User: Fold these one by one.
Assistant:
Number 1:
Amino acid sequence: MEVNLCVLLWAHEGREADLSAHEDQVLGLLAEHDGRVIQRAKTVDGKGDDSEPTEVQLLRFASEGALDGYMNDDRRAALAGQRDAAIAMTEVLRVQLV
């Protein structure tokens, strides 16, 4: 059964470009795990606070096993330090696309 995720990412202040660069790298691994980006969007800065995420992603995986494979990919884990430096908070929602 397919797994669809809505991923909300908040960058550390001043690290928005680093967040994007990191996500470019890790999202490049999706195809190897039967996953794909449905949509990726950056929020429009206007509030001047941290109430909105920096980036929103819709991801699809062919199965729970495909998602597990991506989450446990050693190459992704090796970038954890880079991730922690750029990303302040992440929220992942399992969603059903309508």
Note: The first strand starts at residue 3 and ends at 11.
Number 2:
Amino acid sequence: MPRMPTCRPLHRALCAAIMLSFAPWAVADGMSPALDRVSLWLGGYSLEANVALEASVGTLGTGHLDLESGHENVGRARIDFLAFDNQGFTFDYFTLDRSASQTIDKPFTYQGEPYQLNSELHAKFNLAAGSLSYHWWFGSTNDIVGVGIGGTYYRVKLGINGMIAVNEESVAGGASWSDDAVAPIVTLAYKHAFSDRLRTYIDASGMRKNAGKLTGHLYDFRVGVEWFPWQYFGFGAEYGLTRIGLDHDGHSYDANLDFRLQGPSLFARARF
């Protein structure tokens, strides 16, 4: 009876090398075409920003001040990476830094300082927001749904200068505060791949932080499309809506900043 052919040591090494060379493709077969192993996003966020401040000091009551309303362009960066075909991680970061001037026409008190009516008020604020989120992606077809959790870091700085009333006289004065916090978020997403080079997605996340000196909420919704005219390089476009409310609980005063951001983003994309 003829003997069955066997792999000698050199042949066995060659067989192992061939099998290992196909291993990544075997793993990739279980991954949805709507996902990438590693994906980089670098671009800009063209948004309409509406920022309002409410402040209250003891028995002096509450004042409302519209700090900013208009168009703003900010940079934005994001990175996605995938583990085990369905465990997705995303880091997203952007900042908003503006100065604004406004003539106040109603009583306003901030950090115990009563600002004079019909005087010029100068405000400078900075918001930095970064999030790290996790998605468990369900499915390996062209349509997948992801649910998960994560954390958001936000830092806010605010300074105000103007004319204040001291002993019934007007003098220049101002006040400022800065604080940061970390809060958990819940995420929900959907992705569809028309092909390996054209995809669309919807992503929503939210959080609420009720403890600490800086509390508040953040809600974010995005819808977008990804197009790769080349295998590893392409473009992304999305439209986003973001609402951020931050409450600062001080010893002698309280302040609330309300950010409403919306607009399109454009990205240069790279995937591996």
Note: Residues 1-7, 13-28, 57-61 have pLDDT under 50 and may be disordered.
Number 3:
Amino acid sequence: MALVCAVAAVFVLIYLNSIKSNQEQLLMFSRELPVKARIVNGKGSKERGLFIPKDLIDSIESTGFVKDPLYTTRMAAVLSSGDPDDNKDIAMVLCANDEKAIPDYEDRNIILEDGTDMDFLQGNKPVCLAGETFLARNNLSVGDNIDIKLYKRKYDPYGFTYDYEWLADCSLRIIGSISMASSDNEFTYIDILCPLGWAEEKHALAGSEFHLDSASFTVNDPLRLNDFKAEMKKYLHSVSPTGSESSMGDCLIVYDEIFILSVGRVKDTLKILYTFAPIMFVIIALVGYTAAYLLIQDRRIDIAIMRSLGTGPAACMAAMIIEYSILGFMGCLLGNVFAAPWTGLGINTLLYSMLFFASLMIGIITATFRVSRFNTMTGLIKNES
């Protein structure tokens, strides 16, 4: 019986360990294959230069489904000595909450003052990086202070056009320089780079509505991707080929193709394993029942003698259960040893062994229960014959 139980234990431990391995693989995918999402316009043709109300972003963040947000907003500025009607004097201002939100960030050369780092973007201090062209054009250097007139973008109700509207007079300290992108355009060109929190604060002081021009984030738990999408439908629409070409940021793109493809296969495997897991424990119970029943049949004469000498049915059952449970336990230990190269000897293996032994004992107890209905005379007559 011990050998039969050992073989069965090896099978169960390897089977349950395969479930654990697939579960760990799912968690690994959720860490190694993050799912990104980005707010776009109705047709999905614009990722930057959008009108995205801050209230919308606050609502999305409050759901708990997103993390690592990357936001930017664009404004314009003119030095106090400049002319707002002269395009040459207008500086393009980008405000970001993280260095990764900067367009083509990896292709830019950034030089910072000693003792500073890019974490300044996460605050609201009146500091900035200046574009190399902007520094040269205005004869400025890192460490200088600049006084500017700050202008915000004011969109028409449909989001197709915008005008610049004065917001505030500000003073900024230049703490570093930033180079141009490899292909500068209206969405990547930067003269002044400031913290997003500073821009939001200026809007609040002026009593002006604050909005973003780009927004992206990571799904907090990719394994709950369907729940995330269902929640986002409360705030954003799906991109459509017939959608609007305006700059209204009211749609969402989720970049989940690779994640779904990778996770789908693992989930299909787990579904099959979960389906057969209950059947497997039923089979283990049947193994315990069959092994115990056959052993009891071989010992019918011994049981009859015990009963004829006054041993009660309960005592006979207890003796059989103890004996066969010891054999089953030895088989379980042997199974752990044989399966160790595949499963190891961790806490999960101990838990699986307990489940195996519990199923085995159900079968053993069921088979041993027949002792209570054993006919003593039948066993003695068969002995005499």
Note: Residues 36-255 form one domain.
Number 4:
Amino acid sequence: MTNSLLGALEMVMRTDPGLVRGQNEDSVFANADRGLAILADGMGGYQAGEVASSMATVLLSSGLQRAFKACAAHTADSATGQLFAQRALREQVAVVNSAIYRAAEDQSRFGGMGTTLVAAVFCDDRLVVAHIGDSRLYRLRGEEFVALTHDHSFLQEQLDRGEISAEEARYSVNRNLVTRAVGVDPQVEAEVHTHSVRRGDVYLLCSDGLYDMLEEGEVKHLLETCGANLERAAKQLIQLANDNGGDDNISVVVVKVLREFPAAPGRWSKLWSWFK
């Protein structure tokens, strides 16, 4: 079977410890040919956050790739219409959550560790995104720059209730308190959504170490001006975050859609088309 994603996407990933933290507890994964990008921001005691985020990206990327070998990501359930990618993301995030939770339970030095997570699967001109916590995914389409994820955080809940303004949120002492994370509890539910994808779209997965340091307008402007050079865009995003203080680890995965990537019709679809 040919891979409809070959040459369809460009992905660049970059991570940096920032200027304040002694170690980097972020972890990233990107594979353009498989249409898969993952970013995790770990939390916990000494080195535990690094362990949690690394486990998340390694286990989730390998689990999803095994799942998509058995069943194509774009395959739709006949009863619900749900893409297999949606189901696989939920199932594999649950597997990762259990693995991190068990590791924290079994080894005291990893006690309380966990990680945020944002994962993107590109298939059949669509994007399926799963997230837990406050790592984000943005989309630049033409002049429109929007967040496709909604933070699982105490601060976001305050914003949703209208208790604070967006300006007040930037300086809140509660801005890093997540209400949902991978590996902290025995079970966790990933929020999963599907979006259409267009040629020319630019997607940005990032940790809070980036967006806490930059205004959204700054990020949009940089992606617009550097969209033709993703390596430069990723480097400049991290440099700007560090120029503004670099208070946390900074990680980005930048994805550009170079062409459409509709799924090839299956054998039975081709056979049926001959009789139409």
Note: The chain has one domain: 9-273.
